[in-house]
């Protein structure tokens, strides 16, 4: 485990901009609107050969009636508890404000190493203005500009000196399971239930989660990253720039994932946007499982699980070989079954079928059920193999591959699924000239 550094301060002082600069990616959303960063956001960085994790926190506000502000404050406190050192960020343009003083008092009680970073000092004239922040009583004061990076080197030089030495190990690339779906389907509640802590902010207001955020998780002897994503809405519903960025982060999370856990709200049914998200994951050739959340809220006289499942499979046809699990994130019903199935889908996606075994099974099937003749020409398939790709792709060598139509390709795909278990995984079937 590497050391952890938290970036803390009131809203709009430049925490996320500095976070993005440290991790060298535009990972955290940056916007002039107060309260954009709501969850703790984690990233990796290194300085002078010292690697450490950095946490971007939401702006700390006391006494607000905003439900988000209260939850953000809880997240900031959790980040402070986790951190080995804290970067306390203030804004030279605003000067010392009452909320800054409140944050300073909170940090002093933490007994952690505090590095006071006065942001937006991008000219010599502002260096003198930064001196008033010595009033907080912290020894370590640094002037910097998170936009252009000036002054950050001195801060980081001193920061890495106080970080505890941890046993380092080569970090392998872990599988990524992205929890996706419409806003307010219960994605964050599901992950909170799994990891046993309120890592993500949960409210009844759609759009609470705005970034795609990773959590390392180990279950059934299998380690992977769980990715909580912002809810994806139709384009017509995406009005503000901020939500647009959130949707783009969710789409990127799908593209970078191995398995997509599509969560739908049982009380609303499988609607058009659920279908759009499903096919987005399918087009990206990701493993997919469907979780029907809030099943405990459905009146049992209205639908049985079999009826509900049949309705979903009708909507996702012809790709119906997808696990569907009925869960309640609130009551923790079948949530571990869902993860167990996600692990199985991941294994199916990386499954390799030996060429000899593939031919032993598929060639007799093709001989008994050959492709229909086209214009008096008979199609002969003599050999097949799995391609060396990260997802299941199979090629069948034929004398007239151009005459093999989609219905027969689906027949071959179904037989592959029947004999080799590729549940939850899209399969590509190609026919090539012998």
Question: How does this model look, in words?
Answer:
- It is a single chain.
- With 434 residues, this protein is α/β, with parallel strands linked by helices.
- Helix content is 34%, strand content 21%.
- The chain contains twelve helices and 15 strands.
- A six-stranded mixed β-sheet has the order 2-3-1-4-5-6, sandwiched between helices.
- It is elongated, with a radius of gyration of 26 Å.
- Mean pLDDT is 78; it is low at 27-40, 64-72, 198-212 and 231-248.
What is the rounded distance between the termini?
A: 52 Å
Number of strands: 15
Largest sheet: 6 strands, mixed
How do the SSEs run, as a string of H and E?
A: EHEEHEHEHEHEHEEHEHEHEHHEEHE
What coarse outline follows from CA principal-axis ratios?
A: elongated
The proportion of strand residues reads 15-25%
Radius of gyration, Cα only, in angstroms?
26 Å
Helix content: 25-40%
Q: What is the residue-averaged pLDDT?
A: 78
Strand order of the largest sheet: 2-3-1-4-5-6
Q: What is the chains' assembly state?
A: single chain
Question: How many DSSP H or I helices?
Answer: 12
- SSE class: alpha/beta
In terms of per-residue confidence, which ranges show pLDDT below 50 for 5 or more consecutive residues? 27-40, 64-72, 198-212, 231-248
């Amino acid at each position: 485990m590497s050391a952890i550094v938290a970036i803390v301060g009131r809203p709009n002082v430049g925490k996320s901009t500095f976070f993005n600069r440290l991790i060298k990616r535009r990972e955290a959303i940056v916007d002039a609107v107060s309260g954009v960063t709501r969850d703790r956001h984690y990233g990796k960085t290194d300085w002078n050969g010292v690697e450490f994790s950095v946490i971007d926190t939401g702006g700390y506000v006391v006494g607000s009636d905003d439900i988000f502000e209260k939850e953000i404050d809880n997240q900031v406190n959790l980040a402070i508890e986790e951190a080995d050192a804290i970067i306390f960020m203030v804004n030279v343009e605003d000067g010392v404000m009452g909320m800054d003083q409140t944050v300073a008092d909170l940090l002093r009680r933490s007994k952690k190493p505090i590095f006071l970073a006065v942001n937006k000092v991008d000219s010599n004239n502002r260096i003198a203005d930064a001196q008033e922040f010595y009033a907080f009583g912290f020894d370590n004061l640094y002037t910097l500009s998170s936009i252009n990076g000036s002054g950050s080197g001195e801060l980081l030089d001193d920061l890495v000196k106080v970080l505890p030495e941890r046993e380092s190990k080569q970090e392998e690339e872990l599988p990524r399971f992205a929890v996706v779906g419409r806003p307010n389907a219960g994605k964050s509640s599901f992950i909170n239930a799994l990891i046993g802590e309120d890592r993500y902010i949960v409210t009844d207001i759609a759009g609470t989660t705005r970034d795609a955020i990773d959590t390392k998780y180990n279950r059934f002897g299998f380690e992977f990253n769980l990715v909580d994503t912002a809810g994806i809405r139709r384009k017509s519903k995406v009005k503000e720039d901020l939500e647009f960025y959130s949707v783009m982060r969710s789409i990127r999370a799908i593209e970078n994932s191995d398995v997509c856990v599509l969560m739908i709200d049982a009380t609303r049914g499988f609607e058009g946007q659920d279908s759009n998200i499903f096919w987005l994951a399918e087009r990206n050739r990701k493993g997919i499982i469907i979780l029907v959340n809030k099943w405990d809220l459905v009146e049992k006289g209205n639908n049985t699980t079999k009826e509900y499942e049949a309705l979903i499979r009708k909507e996702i046809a012809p790709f119906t070989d997808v696990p569907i699990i009925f869960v309640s994130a609130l009551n923790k019903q079948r949530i571990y079954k869902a993860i167990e199935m996600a692990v199985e889908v991941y294994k199916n996606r990386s499954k390799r079928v030996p060429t000899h075994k593939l031919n032993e099974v598929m060639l007799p099937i093709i001989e008994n059920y050959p492709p229909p003749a086209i214009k008096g020409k008979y199609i002969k398939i003599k050999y097949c193999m799995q391609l060396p790709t990260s997802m299941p792709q199979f090629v069948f060598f034929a004398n007239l591959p151009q005459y093999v139509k989609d219905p027969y390709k689906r027949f071959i795909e179904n037989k592959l699924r029947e004999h080799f278990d590729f549940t939850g995984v899209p399969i590509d079937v190609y026919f090539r000239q012998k």
